[in-house]
Amino acid sequence: MAKPRYITKIEQIDQLTDEEKSRLKHVTDEFAFRANEYYLSLIDWEDPNDPIRRLVIPSESELDLWGELDASCESEYTKVPGLEHKYNATGLLLVNDVCGAYCRFCFRKRIFMTENDEVSKDVTAGIEYIRRHTEITNVLLTGGDPLVMSTGRLEKIVKQIREIDHVKVIRVGTKMPAFNPWRILNDPSLPALVRKYTRFDKRMYFVVHFNHPRELTEVAIEGLAILRRAGAILVNQTPLIAGVNDDPFVLSELFNKLSYIGVPPYYVFQCRPTLGNKTYSVPLERAYEIFEQGRMNSTGLARRGRFVMSHSTGKIEVVGLSEDHIYFKYLRAHYDEDNARFLVFERNPHARWFDDYDEVVEVYGIENPFLEEKSQERR
After folding, report:
1. What does the alpha-carbon distance between residue 203 and residue 118 come to, in Å, rounded to a whole number?
2. With contact defined as beta carbons under 8 Å apart, do 275 and 69 qualify?
C-alpha cells in the first residue's frame, strides 16, 4: 500500500453527513483533529458506537467543561525545553508535536492546540541535561509520536543518546504501528536503525499503543514483527476508555492477542482528567473491576499489565477493593518518601482520579536502603 493520505479537516470525511460535519466542526475548532485513510478504513460507519470511530472521530461531549489541560502537571517537571525529569532514573524527551492521528482522549492534547514551547525541535539542551545527570539510565522519546518523523531525523537523536554511557535503555513511545503500520513496512531504514543501536546490554524498547483488538490487523502485526526481528523489545499500554475498551471481554481479547504476538501488556491507565475527557473517562472503581475481570480470562503472559494512574506525584497502582475501601500503591514516585507507599481510602464510587479521595484510612511506608546508602556515601 502507498503512504496513506492524512486528513486534517473533519469536512474531508465523506462518511459523515453534512449535519455531523457542521456539529463536529465546533469540537475541532477547540481540539485538533487528524486521521488517515488506513485508520478510517477500520471503522464500521454503520455503527454509531463503533470503538475505532470513537478513538479518532470527535464527540460533542468533549466540549463539556471538565478537567484541565495539564492534568498531571508535566510542566512542573520540565527542566529544559522538551525535557521532563520526574522520576530519578528516567528522562523524557518530547521530540515531536504531531501524531499519526489524534486520540480524542489524549492527555497531551494541549501541544496540538496552540503554539507551545514544551516540544523542542532542537533537542541539544535536553541531550546535554541527560549527559550531566548520570542517574538517568532510561530515556523515553515521545511527543507527539517519534515515528511521524523521518527515520533520518530520529536517528540523529538516538545516536546522541546512545553515545551517553550511563543511558542503558532507549524507549520509543508510539501509536504508529496501530495508526499507520505502513510507516514500518515501507521503510527498511527503521529496522536498520533498531539493529544499529541495540546492544546486548543496552536495549531499544518500543512502547506501542493498541487500545482495541480490532487495531491488531494483519499489517499491524507484520509491522510489529519487523521491529521485533530487528531486536526491539515491544510492550503495549492503553488507557481504559469509555465506549472503546471498558468491557472485560474486549480487554481480555486485547491482552490475549497481544501476548500471542509477543507484545505483552504493560500499563493500563485510568483516563486522565484532561480538559474534554469526561466522555472517555470511566469511574475509577468500576474501571478497576473491568480491568481485573479482563485479566481473569487472560493467559498468564497476558496478565502482566497493571492498572495505574499517572498522577502529578507519581505512578499510582490500584491494587484492590474491599466492601468499604480502595487500596493504592506508588509504583514510582517523584518524592523519595512516596516510593512503594501503600494507601487505604474509603471507597467513592463517583471518583475518577486519585484526588477525588479524601477519607484516608491508613498509610504504610517502606524504608529505602538505597537512600540510606547514598546518605552514608555523602558523609
Report:
1. 27
2. yes
Distance CA 255, CA 318 (A): 18
Report d(CA 191, CA 204) in Å as an integer: 11
Distance CA 35, CA 58 (A): 11
Give the SS3 label for residue 227. Answer: helix
Q: Is the peptide bond before 144 cis (omega within 30 degrees of 0)?
A: yes
Phi, psi of 359 (to 5 degrees): -95, 75
How open is the CA angle 82-88-92, to the nearest 5 degrees? 25
Q: How far is CA 45 from CA 17, 50, 348, in A?
A: 11, 7, 37
**pLDDT for the residue 2:** 65
In this prediction, residue 207 carries a pLDDT of 98
- CA 181 to CA 223: how far, in whole Å? 6
Place of cell 494541549: 110
What's residue 43's pLDDT?
98
Single-letter code of the amino acid located at 307: F
The pLDDT value recorded for residue 1 is: 61
> Which stretches of the chain drop beneath a pLDDT of 70?
1-2, 115-117, 372-379
Specify the pTM.
0.95
Q: Do 305 and 261 contact (CB within 8 A), yes or no?
A: no
3-state secondary structure of 224: helix
The C-alpha atoms of residue 16 and residue 78 are separated, in whole angstroms, by: 40
